[in-house]
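Lab notes, practical 5.
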Amino acid sequence: MVFHGDYEIEFEIYETRKNKGRDKLLGHMVGVDAYDAKTRWAEAHVLPDEKCAQIYALFPASEWK
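Output from the prediction step:
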């Protein structure tokens, strides 16, 4: 038996900040892919569409090793 959790990985969730040097790390969320993690984050934090468009999910660089 395969569980959905067997395929989920943890992503870093960032917010794009205009005219700032860096984007802001908001936290972490698990998902099957980056889109799934972003969607889960938006649903968990009840984000409006405008705010949702400003966030994105990345696989943590520390996991590339």
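Observations recorded by the TA: The first strand starts at residue 9 and ends at 15. The chain has a mean pLDDT of 85.
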